[in-house]
Automatic annotation (TrEMBL), chains A, B:
NCBIfam families: PRK00197.1 (NF001221), proA (TIGR00407)
Presence of keyword Oxidoreductase: yes
This protein's encoding gene: pro1
Pathway: Amino-acid biosynthesis; L-proline biosynthesis; L-glutamate 5-semialdehyde from L-glutamate: step 2/2
HAMAP family: ProA
Signal peptide interval: none
Protein name per UniProt: glutamate-5-semialdehyde dehydrogenase
Native organism taxonomy: Eukaryota, Fungi, Dikarya, Ascomycota, Pezizomycotina
Keywords per UniProt: Amino-acid biosynthesis, NADP, Oxidoreductase, Proline biosynthesis
Origin species: Lachnellula cervina
Length: 459, 459
């Protein structure tokens, strides 16, 4: 790993060059590098936490001056209970994952002695733009090395987009990077495979380098992702919005409906996979909705109801509860509240629910609660989202819960990788052909011409 | 299929809407639509060829006036031997391919009664921008319907980019589209699933509709692809350049070297998978290169040689041959000649060859000719191209030759799909979770908390 204040184009060229070496290293060499990073970081805990403490002092002062939000200060803190240990454990977890490089996914005998093979390989150069969390550096370095991709890291530190004037690199970023850099010196992974760019105000330049950088991964707020998606031709992996919905159909189990909706809304309201819109079938308004609403209100959720749902709840709920119901306006159904606010809308059929989700949702994760299997299958086929779930929480959409070991992010893209993205999302493939001098002119439909065999081989 | 002169945004919205219906149709419904198209086109041969003849008359006149190239006139001609039959056969070929929709590619038991499944589904809405070939309409309509994607087709007719003033739709485009449209009326495939946009000068507007259009597929010249790649945020599938190289190592079989290099260069010089640069190992200069050069010269190939290769050939070849050798300049190694011109460069090692290809190539298809298996494997791992081939022609890189049945194009992208792209490249996936009321709050490391099982299930 190197810290560089080189020109962005030079950093990107160096990364492309290093990516070619990294792509050919065997599993053991990449795993050994992760071991070396783990050991070095363990041994340097005191100096890194000291650097982090200096960052925190400065950040707290900025928060007092009102130039920085307290949540950014909190994210910066590497001394928080369990954070350091989680960071170190994450490196070993990634090391233990199956090697995603070199997996054969197709093998065809084109002809005698002419074999085609499709084999997974790294994408090339990743650009990771991340907000205040210093542990992202160790996390991304591990993922990149494991997957054979070079990575350029650009921290936003305590800067807030789209203003670039602030402090983009903090002392903790630099301290962690220096330790990783020194650790890599003892390995065969090129030091320029992972670079922390410390040059200021270069994000627009980095985003323009599509001839060297193959994929951008923003790690941070919706605002960060939205800014990046609108500022580059390089493919961006991630999602700007997580506007998830639940459709409550009248045959759903009442107790389950309460549990699942409460979990989807309240277990982590700021998460992208939390529910934002509850679509209630008309036939559920007076039966299923009232206990769900009571449970949500008891958890402090604000309900923004359309006229029908508000009317039904006003009749069914205690006056104490119904008085705090709010009126939804149209914008509530297009808003990712990221807080304890839930929009409630009445729909007459599953078709209307599906249509609402496909138009107003963000294609992230949407759920149906019903006892009807055919209805659930119809919903899951028709809703155009990365995740479609039946009788469970929208918050299940998560790389760890899916068993992917780690997660680069959750993608709402329509190509390459969708939903929670693990190491597989950092891979592409190449076709290898091993021949014995065959030429295309020998094959064809004329007399004396050969035909391709196209025999699928096991792999 | 509909012909529309609607606003681009309305066409795109209609396509998005139709894509949702199309995505849920069973295999049989999509295949039946292809049968209906095939029957209808067969029955309308005379009127379509008559329309095409009128286009040809107008195009020939334009060619005489010097406003149109003769190659465009030739591409427009649907009456050329075998072209009509190939177009019709293509529809049935696509119909017979395995259904790419609904394939399960991962199945995990997250917990008892909580199953995760990853299943292939269509991407959504494709925008196909195509040059003069009218048969592309039937071809793309088949591929789109088979893969469950809606498609917006925009023909350039006899217009040449980047000037939009010309005639973008020809009578043949309209005639074919009308027949397909009428055929689809009798099927459950929505007519707006396939739309031919006849509105003039709307390509820039279409390319701006990234909220409705998920993928752009340009079918035409390098110039067309390059223009489109630089004009849209929508992902583009394809390649602008095909700068393929062959590395001739000194242990290569001499007779094989001649055959393979001649095939790679001369079997279709205008194809993207033809070789443009021959990298000759120093040790091959006086042994392998001269017979290769003789064979190429005999086929009319112009050799643009660096100093070392020219010197070696001047000594070894007959004066008659050596006098026609040309001097390469640096730009020859960055040029896709697309003609009977080959750049020849001397390299001292495989490392130098790999480095040259990674820097100067277009990451399309590159070959090594050698008797050494370890060297070949090293080359194939290290060259960062969609196709890496050993002891066979670069021209093997082709969807038909790979056994994919059909080909949307050859991609040099680093994400999603690389190399020859068949129906699989038009698919993405979604995650489906089928639960029984499980919530995320039940799982964790605290006492009484459950753990995920993450058991791989067969599929």
């Amino acid at each position: 790993m190197s810290l560089t204040n080189a020109l962005p184009v030079d950093a990107a060229k160096a990364a492309k060059c290093a990516s070619r070496t990294l792509a050919t290293l065997p599993t053991s060499a990449r795993n050994d590098a992760l071991t070396a990073i783990h050991v070095a970081l363990s041994q340097s805990k005191d100096e890194i936490l000291a650097a982090n403490a200096r960052d925190l002092t400065a950040a707290k002062k900025a928060a007092e001056d009102g130039t920085l939000s307290l949540s950014l200060v909190s994210r910066l803190d590497l001394g928080k209970k369990g954070k350091w240990e989680d960071m170190l454990k994450g490196i070993l977890d990634v090391r233990e994952l199956e090697d995603p490089v070199g997996k054969v996914t197709l093998r065809t005998k084109l002809d005698e002695g002419l074999d085609l093979e499709r084999v997974s390989c790294p994408i090339g150069v990743l650009l990771i733009i991340f907000e205040a969390r210093p542990e992202v550096i160790a996390n991304i370095a591990s993922l990149a090395i494991k997957s054979g991709n070079a990575a350029i890291l650009k921290g936003l530190g305590t800067t807030r987009l789209p203003k670039y004037g602030g402090k983009e690199s903090t002392e903790s970023f630099v301290a962690i990077s220096k330790v990783i850099s020194a650790a890599l010196e003892s390995t065969v992974v090129p030091n320029t495979a992972i670079q922390l760019v410390t040059t200021r105000d270069v994000i627009p330049q980095l985003l323009a380098l599509d001839q060297y950088i193959d994929l951008v991964i923003p790690r941070g707020s919706n605002e960060l992702v939205r800014y990046i998606k609108s500022s580059t031709r390089i493919p961006v992996l991630g999602h700007a919005d997580g506007l998830c919905s639940i459709y409550l159909e009248h045959t759903a189990d009442p107790e389950m409906a309460v549990r699942v909706i409460v979990d989807s809304k309240t277990s982590y309201p700021a998460a992208c996979n939390s529910v934002e819109t509850l679509l209630v079938e008309e036939a559920s308004l007076e039966t299923l909705l009232p206990p769900v609403a009571e449970a949500l209100l008891a958890k402090g959720v604000s309900l923004r109801c359309d006229a029908s749902s508000k009317k039904a709840l006003t009749v069914k709920l205690s006056p104490h509860s119904s008085v705090i119901l709010q009126d939804a306006d149209e914008s509530d159904f297009d808003t990712e509240h990221l807080s304890l606010t839930l929009a409630v809308k009445t729909v007459s059929t599953v078709t209307e629910a599906i249509s609402h989700i496909n138009i107003h949702g963000s294609h992230h994760t949407d759920a149906i609660l019903t006892s009807s299997s055919p209805l659930a299958e119809h919903f899951m086929s028709s809703v155009d989202s990365a995740g479609v779930v039946w009788n469970t929480s929208t918050r299940m959409a998560d790389g760890m819960r899916f068993g992917f070991g780690t997660e680069v992010g959750i993608s709402t893209n329509k190509i390459h990788a969708r939903g929670p993205v693990g190491l597989e999302g950092l891979m592409i493939y190449k076709y290898k052909i091993r021949g014995g001098g065959q030429i295309t002119a020998e094959y064809g439909e004329g007399s004396g011409q050969k035909s391709f065999k196209h025999e699928r081989l096991p792999f």
